[in-house]
């Protein structure tokens, strides 16, 4: 949302509060509750979004603020429409606005944070050069086979409105979802592609901002392996991850969405138990070198799709590093000083 729209909303709200004759009692709530209220939390208002003074002066004023917010300008309404994006299901919509990615410069210095939504909009990536920190986990079993996942899945159609929506235990944004005849692919960026075991982002939180020994990124990797693949933390101790290097790349997904990441490459060899999350993962499989080479040939022929970051790692590093995994010499490959800019 632009600064101009922020100003309109803030100014309109301030005028309404000023006209009210009821006692003004500040409270730490958002201006209103709606499926799109998280928009406020991730928008740069003139004052902190988490301490907007909603001033409990009565329901009438709060409703007036809601109406003013909804009709301040057509741009606001367009932004609200963007929030209920048809490319996202309820789970992804929540994550896109609640998860705060770590913004970095090209030298991997933290420069701020922003919503996952903004970090993956190509318009934002191109106009503001938003670059966020990410990680990619390459997990090998004791036979040195590489775990792959197929990202996301095509959810079942929703044809029976709210009843079907609740039947599927979708409690958040249910009314929005039920208006659609069919939910789109669960993953917003690069759905239904083959990739390495886990690819995600450390979040802007204390435990995942720790720079020493790359502990923040390791903590995030452990968290997401549980979220996506159901791998318990004890199966992937944080000190077992080997950070091998970092790559910087940009990749559009579908025109609207894309990636611009400074990606930490984490290797680990473990025998793990898996219970993949069907909202995140369509399929999993272990492959040996030859099977991966066959998969790459199929990708070249257009028969399957690989994620762009995975393909960059395969083409530039993976098979050499795979040899070192088997030989027990992986530490020799570690280079965390260089940031490889790949295209």
From TrEMBL:
Enzyme Commission number(s) from the entry: 5.3.3.2
GO molecular function, a single term: isopentenyl-diphosphate delta-isomerase activity
Pfam family, one: NUDIX
Family annotation (InterPro entries): IsopentenylPP_isomerase_typ1, NUDIX_hydrolase-like_dom_sf, NUDIX_hydrolase_dom
Key word Isomerase present: yes
GO cellular component terms given for this protein: cytoplasm
Keyword annotations: Chlorophyll biosynthesis, Isomerase, Isoprene biosynthesis
A GO BP annotation: isopentenyl diphosphate biosynthetic process
Pathway(s) where this gene product acts: Porphyrin-containing compound metabolism; chlorophyll biosynthesis; Isoprenoid biosynthesis; dimethylallyl diphosphate biosynthesis; dimethylallyl diphosphate from isopentenyl diphosphate: step 1/1
Function: Catalyzes the 1,3-allylic rearrangement of the homoallylic substrate isopentenyl (IPP) to its highly electrophilic allylic isomer, dimethylallyl diphosphate (DMAPP).
Family: Belongs to the IPP isomerase type 1 family.
Protein name (record): isopentenyl-diphosphate Delta-isomerase
Species of origin: Papaver somniferum
